[in-house]
Design goal:
mainly beta; 8% helix; 57% strand; five-stranded mixed sheet; Maltoporin, Chain A; 668 residues
């Protein structure tokens, strides 16, 4: 009942704020050209996989542009995403490797319940590793589109908490090159170069980055290299061809966790009892795409993608064995095919839109665990077909309908490394086959109450298929989870000075897949899990030189019958900041984030371990521009807070203390 009252109160506030605006008669004011855009007029592709206006999407949507990225104090993708409403950072070692983001309170299963796309190809791995956000350098990103809530109709398996769509830069008309270098605490060196240019029908965009840091903790180093290229060719006036390729490799230390006492000690929290544990990754992605303008017959887009990921690691190093004998490896080969047909047309003098899509993902996966003398094999094939449409019922009322049918086939086998005489050999285990058919649907309404004011509501279903790691250590009857989602909200834009948004959501999941720490198996939770909450956003241009933004998220995430909280999900989160153009060449940005207390990752009953403390973190950045030169300096964790984003059985993973960086970028 209290939750319902809060919902009503928020909508009354939205309505009254609009009335106040109308009475005051505030006139739109032109903003400074360097200011970030207000979002209501944005065109995005995430929700429908084709271009559409945010105003037609019955969901909470956020767009982060390349200009926003440049102004933000964040130096990597995970930190950038974590400042948005409803998104929480989950970091093990204080950098972007082995880090991820949670949306809408998925907790420890966020890696499999939040989809990350890069140029139309999934970054999510078929195991529990989650999307490797460290493989996407910030200088390669043109924009990021975030759609919260169920996206299974368009994206299929795993689009439960939301979808993050990353779009890399395309070639600009005028040739341009950028060189970036920065240096900071923990011997951190970050360098990036980029080139973009277009001549006649051919366009080229190249980005390269090198990062080297000793890390905040002992054995917390990270070294990585990235190269991304995107080539485009306009084949006539109606056909566009593009090819993109990315290469990522890294080496990183794995310092493990610390005790609660050490977490609270500024001297001890940087220590490790695993000085020889480490990992390395090579990740290659290739995408070919063709877009065909069929004129009156619509548009057709075809995409083919490949991903080759190799990962090796040593955890729990023993000097009694050779390093080779205790190195575990992962080999993933994934290929995908996507075909989308879209048609815009007019009926009853109103705009209508129809989409039909087919997508297929095939993965060959091998995990060789020398430490356990076993090898996990998985060959999976997921094929989905979806149909969706946006129908304008009235000039100010649109209806969204969508349906997906998905088939999953998987062949799995666990092999054993056994000794025959003096030789060890792999012995194939008994194969098992899993086949599932899943359906998802969506219906939503968007009502334009006034110009630049929208109210929306939607009902959708979602599903998630168990991944390879979960099936390898699972109860025999492990099956897909299914969810029901309701979103209600509104967006208001006050000229070019302000924008407000509020969304109320509820998510109920049957058979949610989770790891049972007592039984040491992955299983379906026997009861519903319920997540409900409120997401709010505000963006204000106080003057042409001063931009303020803020958001607050309330999340009520519980196991229904137990009436216990889902671990690692805070009830309250908030972020806010300012960007101030002190004078034309000098700008200052400040960002603050609050994350409330949450239960330990291994405490489903909420009574076994101490809760993780809430924390507040303040970051700041100063930028000075002169012609093509940009000089910047920043301080992260200004208040020197000692905190961790995750803990398991009171083993904590400390985040960095106060740290500094500075550098320059030259554009020519």
């Amino acid at each position: 009942m209290a939750f319902c009252r809060l919902v009503v109160l928020l909508f009354l506030l939205v309505g009254s704020s609009y009335a106040t605006y109308a009475q005051n008669g505030v006139e739109p004011v032109e903003r400074h050209p360097d200011q970030p855009r207000l979002e209501l007029g944005e065109i995005v592709v995430t929700a429908a996989r084709i271009d559409e206006s945010i105003r037609r999407i019955p969901r909470n949507v956020t767009v982060i542009t390349s200009g926003d990225i440049e102004q933000a104090g964040s130096n990597n993708l995970v930190d950038l995403l974590a400042r948005e409403s409803g998104i929480r950072l989950r970091s093990l070692f204080g950098h972007d490797k082995t880090a991820g983001v949670d949306m809408r309170g998925m907790g420890d299963t966020a890696a499999s319940n939040v989809i990350v796309m890069v140029d139309g190809v999934r970054l999510n791995s078929p195991d529990l590793a989650g999307p490797d956000l460290s493989s996407v350098p910030l200088n390669s990103i043109e924009r990021i589109e975030i759609v919260r809530g169920a996206g299974s109709v368009v994206y299929g398996d795993g689009a439960v908490g939301g979808v993050i769509n990353i779009i890399t830069k395309k070639a600009e008309k005028q040739p341009e090159a950028r060189v970036y270098a920065s240096y900071g605490s923990y011997e951190t060196f970050d360098s990036r170069v980029a080139y973009s240019g277009k001549e006649n029908r051919f366009g080229l965009n190249l980005n390269a980055a090198y990062y080297d840091s000793d890390g905040y903790r002992d054995n917390g180093y990270l070294r990585k290299k990235d190269v991304i290229g995107r080539f485009g060719y306009d084949l006539g006036d109606h056909v566009i061809l593009s090819v993109s390729s990315s290469y990522h490799c890294d080496e990183n230390g794995l310092p493990g966790g610390v005790s609660k006492e050490d977490q609270d000690s500024e001297e001890s929290r940087t220590s490790t009892d695993r000085p020889d544990d480490s990992g390395d990754t090579t990740d290659r992605r290739y995408v070919g795409a063709m877009e065909i303008d069929l004129e009156t017959w619509g548009n057709l887009a075809v995409q083919r993608g490949y991903r080759l990921r190799d990962n090796s690691y040593v955890m729990g190093f023993s000097p009694l064995l050779t390093r080779e004998d205790q190195t575990d490896t992962i080999d993933e080969d994934t290929k995908n095919l996507g075909v989308i047909y879209s048609k815009d047309f007019t009926a009853l003098d109103l705009d209508q839109q129809l989409r039909f899509g087919v997508d297929q993902y095939e993965t060959e996966y091998v995990r060789e665990e020398r430490s356990k003398d076993q090898r996990e094999n998985g060959d999976t094939d997921s094929l989905g077909v979806f149909l969706a449409g946006d129908c304008s019922l009235l000039a100010d009322l649109s209806l969204r309908l969508g349906y997906r049918h998905n088939n999953f086939d998987g062949d799995f086998r666990t092999d054993k490394h056994q000794l025959f005489g003096s030789t060890q050999r792999w012995v194939n285990g008994e194969p098992s086959k899993r086949e599932w058919t899943n359906d998802a649907g969506e219906v939503g309404l968007v009502y334009s109450l006034r110009p630049d004011t929208d109210l929306f509501g939607s009902y959708a279903t979602s599903f998630r298929v168990p991944n390879v790691d979960e099936l390898a250590q699972a109860q025999g009857d492990l099956k897909p989870q299914e969810g029901m989602h309701v979103d209600i909200g509104g967006r208001i834009k006050y000229g070019k000075r302000a924008e407000f948004a509020v969304t109320v959501f509820e998510m109920r999941i049957d058979d949610e897949i989770f790891f049972d720490g007592d039984l040491q198996v992955n299983r379906n939770f026997g009861d519903k899990t319920v997540r409900r909450g409120i997401e709010t956003d505000v963006r204000l241009y106080v003057t042409d030189a001063l931009y303020l933004w803020g958001n607050y998220t309330y999340t009520h995430a519980k196991f229904d019958s137990r009436d216990t909280w889902v671990p690692l999900v805070p009830e309250h989160m908030a972020s806010g900041g300012l960007e101030w153009q002190v004078h034309e060449p000098l700008a200052v940005s400040v960002t603050g984030t609050y994350v409330g207390p949450r239960f330990d990752g291994n405490d489903e009953n909420n009574n076994r371990f101490d809760k993780l403390d809430g924390y507040s973190v303040l970051d700041t950045k100063v930028i000075y521009r002169w012609k093509g030169l940009k000089v910047f300096a920043g301080v992260n964790n200004v208040l020197n807070k000692l905190y961790s984003t995750v803990a398991y059985s009171e083993t904590y993973y400390p985040m960095p203390d106060r740290n500094f960086y500075g550098g320059a970028e030259w554009t020519f």
